[in-house]
């Protein structure tokens, strides 16, 4: 260590980057668990969405501190919400008396997993760009925008599916009306 020179943080990484990596890893893990399950509950839909929102919020704050324009993040979240809501409307939903089940093709299930994986890649890009800070600042902005869009996709999908699940659980199935009328 040279006298008179301050020791900098290790490659400009902070605790925020560790929290972002943990949040992205948790998002991938819970999305993988959702894919493997046959039945889904409403609160399980929001776990990957909440983790993705945490990660996107952290990356957004890092960019706001760097004096980036916030309107680009508004556009990213709006487009992500629109894509996620469309995905939630097109998902086939089947509800029996006790549990609700999402009937998705394997390609659609893999698409659900790709969104958290892209989010994790965006976090890794943020971390690598933080190491080479002055050179890759635009890459950090792009990674934050992608993370914001991914969070919007997961939140939009979870919102629409939870509303659809709640509505279908409150209305009786058409077959149950026929059975009760026959008795």
Summarize this structure briefly.
This protein has 183 residues and is mainly alpha-helical.
Give a verbal description of the structure.
The chain has 183 residues and is mainly α. Helices cover 74% and strands 5% of the residues. The chain has helices spanning 15-36, 42-65, 71-90, 106-131, 137-170, 174-182, and strands at residues 39-40, 92-95, 100-103. A 3-stranded antiparallel sheet has the order 1-3-2. A hairpin with a 4-residue loop joins β2 and β3 (100-103). α1 packs antiparallel against α2 (42-65). Mean pLDDT is 82; it is low at 176-183.
The secondary-structure class comes to: mainly alpha
Radius of gyration: 21 Å
Question: Biggest β-sheet, characterized?
Answer: 3 strands, antiparallel
Mean pLDDT: 82
Strand content: 5-15%
List the uncertain runs.
Answer: 176-183
Features:
single chain; 183 residues; mainly alpha; 6 helices; 3 strands; elongated; disordered C terminus
Describe how the helices and strands are arranged:
Blueprint: H1 15-36, E1 39-40, H2 42-65, H3 71-90, E2 92-95, E3 100-103, H4 106-131, H5 137-170, H6 174-182
Antiparallel strand pairs: 1-3, 2-3
Helix pairs in contact: 1-2, 1-4, 2-4, 2-5, 3-5, 4-5
């Amino acid at each position: 260590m040279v006298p008179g020179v301050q020791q900098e943080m290790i490659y400009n990484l902070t605790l925020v980057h560790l929290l972002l990596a943990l949040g992205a890893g948790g998002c991938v893990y819970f999305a993988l668990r959702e894919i493997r399950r046959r039945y889904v509950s409403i609160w399980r839909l929001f776990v990957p969405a909440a983790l993705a929102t945490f990660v996107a919020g952290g990356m957004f704050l890092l960019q706001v501190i760097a004096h980036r324009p916030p309107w680009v993040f508004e556009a990213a979240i709006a487009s992500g919400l629109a894509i996620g809501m469309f995905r939630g409307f097109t998902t086939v939903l089947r509800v029996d008396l006790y549990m609700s089940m999402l009937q998705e093709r394997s390609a659609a299930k893999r698409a659900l997993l790709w969104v958290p994986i892209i989010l994790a890649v965006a976090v890794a890009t943020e971390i690598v760009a933080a190491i080479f800070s002055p050179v890759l600042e635009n890459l950090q902005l792009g990674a934050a925008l992608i993370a914001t869009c991914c969070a919007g996709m997961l939140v939009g999908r979870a919102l629409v599916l939870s509303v659809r699940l709640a509505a279908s659980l409150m209305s009786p199935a058409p077959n149950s009306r026929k059975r009760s009328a026959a008795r």
